[in-house]
Design brief:
mainly beta; Jelly Rolls; seven-stranded antiparallel β-sheet; 4% helix; globular
C-alpha cells in the first residue's frame, strides 16, 4: 500500500503538480477517415483549460456559430480546409494556428482529405442557475 502523504522516491510530494504526457496528437489525428467529431478531450481533474482534437471527414462542416464568452486557439494538425467568417474564407493547412476571439463568428469545412484540429480555451464554468 502506498502512503499518499509520503514523498515520491525523488522527494517530490505526491500531490505536487507535475507535467504529464497525455497522448500523441499526430497518431490520433491520423485515425481512419471515417472517424469524426471529438476524438480526444483533455479530462484531467483540476485543470484550468479545455482542449479537444476534432476530426472532420472530407468535405464535412462545422456550421456557422459564434462563441460569445471564450477566446479559442485552433491548431490544424492534419489535412486542410477552410475557415469561414464575416471577412471571407481563409485557407487552413497543417500547422496553421488561429486565434478565434470571443464574439467572433466562424465555420470550419474540411478539404478533400479531411481535417483534424486541436482547440484550446479556458475551461467553461459549470452550469449555473441565473435569475431572469
Amino acid at each position: 500500500m502506498t502512503d499518499l502523504s509520503a514523498p515520491a522516491p525523488d522527494g517530490t510530494p505526491v500531490d505536487t503538480p507535475v507535467p504529464r504526457l497525455l497522448c500523441d496528437i499526430r497518431a490520433l489525428a491520423g485515425m481512419t477517415p471515417e472517424s469524426a467529431g471529438a476524438v480526444w478531450k483533455l479530462a484531467e481533474s483540476g485543470r484550468q483549460l479545455d482542449a479537444n482534437l476534432i476530426r472532420l471527414p472530407a468535405r464535412q462542416r462545422v456550421d456557422t456559430h459564434t462563441e460569445p464568452d471564450l477566446d479559442v486557439l485552433l491548431l490544424v494538425v492534419t489535412g486542410d480546409g477552410v475557415l469561414g467568417g464575416p471577412d471571407g474564407p481563409r485557407p487552413l493547412a497543417e500547422g496553421t494556428l488561429l486565434w478565434l476571439p470571443h464574439g467572433s463568428t466562424r465555420s470550419v469545412t474540411a478539404g478533400e482529405d479531411g481535417l483534424s484540429y486541436l482547440t484550446v480555451h479556458k475551461r467553461r464554468p459549470g452550469m449555473q442557475i441565473r435569475r431572469r
